[in-house]
Amino acid sequence: MRVHTDRLSLRPVISSDADSLFNIYGDPATNTFNPAGPYPDSDYAKTVLNRWLAHWQAHGFGNWAISLVDHPEKIIGFGGLTIRRFDDIVINNLGYRFSTDAWGKGLATEFARFAIKYGFNDIKLTEISAVVRANHLTSQKVLEKAGLRYIQEIYDVEDAPPSLMYSLRMDEWLRNVVSQDR
């Protein structure tokens, strides 16, 4: 099942996405703000992809392979909504990562806004959160443009400084949607 935004085409991940996943997540440039670093090899990417496929099976939602509408065969990123646990906190996590050639075009913001709308309208989540490194200002701006706001620090990577958790509740999102329609 493919869904679209103005410029993006999204479909649930499939097992043959492993090479594209490794190409994006294994790129040191896309991991500039990731203390865990790039994926070490394609086997690791396959393991992650299998976890993503299991999430779709268990919950009916998860990560999408992202391409441009006019080039649906070329994956430019991955992202979606997943249930994540950080110590004693469980969140509906909005996550995304795009290849470097997709940066600076507003695609992450377009994706984040779509994912939030999908999360609230289609799968009826009550809150959506995202975790971002404190020094990743570009990603923080994406989250703010999509309507999320800073909530708290969160320790998500062992032996690394805390990340920042941003969040948006459905009732807040609905108020913003109604006020924008006026």
Tally the helices: what do you get? 5
- Sheet bearing the most strands, described? 5 strands, antiparallel
**Helix and strand pattern:** EEHHEEEHEHEEH
> What's the domain count?
1
Give a short overview.
The chain has five helices and eight strands, in the order ββααβββαβαββα.
Label this structure with key terms.
182 residues, Aminopeptidase, five-stranded antiparallel sheet, three-stranded antiparallel sheet, 5 helices, 8 strands, 32% strand
What does this structure look like?
The protein has helices spanning 18-25, 42-59, 107-121, 137-145, 170-181, and strands at 3-4, 8-12, 63-68, 71-86, 89-98, 127-133, 149-154, 163-169. The protein is α+β, with helices and mostly antiparallel strands and 182 residues long. It has a single domain (3-181), classed as Aminopeptidase (3-Layer(aba) Sandwich). α3 (107-121) crosses α4. 32% of the residues are buried.
